[in-house]
Predict the structure.
Amino acid sequence: MLVIIAAMVASILSILVVKPFNQGGGKDDTVPETIQRPEPK
């Protein structure tokens, strides 16, 4: 029983820890990435 509860707590903590990194990584990737379109002549 304790092992199951520990596994559930570990999974919840891992989700909470990984989510900010995924969101931060996505924001960091999208901010510098600017789409440069050629100017019409």
About this structure: Residues 21 and 40 are 39 Å apart (CA to CA). The mean pLDDT is 74. The chain has one helix and no strands. The first helix runs from residue 2 to 30.
